[in-house]
Amino acid sequence: MKSLFGSLVYCLFLFVSDVYGTYRLNRFDPQQVTAQSYAQRRNIARPPLRTLAPSATDNSCRSRPLDLVFIIDSSRSVRPGEFEKVKIFLADMVDTLDVGPEATRVAVVNYASTVKIEFLLKAHLNKPNMKQAITRIEPLAAGTMTGLAIKSAMTEAFTEESGARPKSKNIAKVAIIVTDGRPQDQVEEVSAAARGSGIEIYAVGVDRADMTSLRLMASNPLEDHVFYVETYGVIEKLTSKFRETLCGVDPCAMGHDCEHICVSSNASHHCKCRKGYILNLDQKTCTLKQIKAVVVVEDPCKCEARLAFQMQTQAALQEITAR
Questions:
Q1: In this protein, which residues make up the domain named VWFA (predicted)?
Q2: 98: exposed, middle or buried (C-beta count within 10 Å: 0-12, 13-18, 19+)?
């Protein structure tokens, strides 16, 4: 009888947590949440899944500042050894980032039936302290309240009070969710609210992870934000892929078609010409700038005539060099 009563109490706790964690979104624009959900369901039938295929991009990766929050599943289905693999993945990710007060700040949200914010964005602003804090994270065991975890990250971890930079600084806000199961609460609405508030969400599924839920959580385009690995044993190899994605790849370093000079500008690039040349209409190739000589019909011994002769000679030499 006591066992039955205990089970009923536990089920009631899960139900209340579900309702509390997922549906208290009144302070967010309902139209924005609806639009986000619609866009997500419109794309969910498409094949967005990206399996593990790390790229070697270390030489061309430029670090950019982020407010980055890891949301990690430590439910009962994640065995102790597997959870250690997740912690190794987090530590490896920290190693790839430029961590600092004016660079990337990192927080970790740990969840199962309950949610625990292991440390906030303002807590550790150097790599050694941050990696030491990661080693102290312990699994929470039962349940998979992913929606509650996303809401906690949005309302507690991604706030200025917790160390997030203000919108005026234009620092990207990124959440990486790692889970191996099916959420026991609703994730669609709370994920839409998070994306609507400016948080870019990456969803990493492991082993038995529910792919539909991952797609409902992740930002668009889904093919760039949903990842899958077969076991926790290979999750740390995703570090290279996230380094490529989060650091930002230098477009010029990745290859360009500029004849002279390539200039990187955020995610794109443009071409420039060396001194003495002008950019053609194709915005790629360059043509020697023509110097018009001033014809002076005067005494050839005067300074103006000598200057005109020098300019004509220079123009002729440039034309010969170009040929």
A1: 67-242
A2: middle
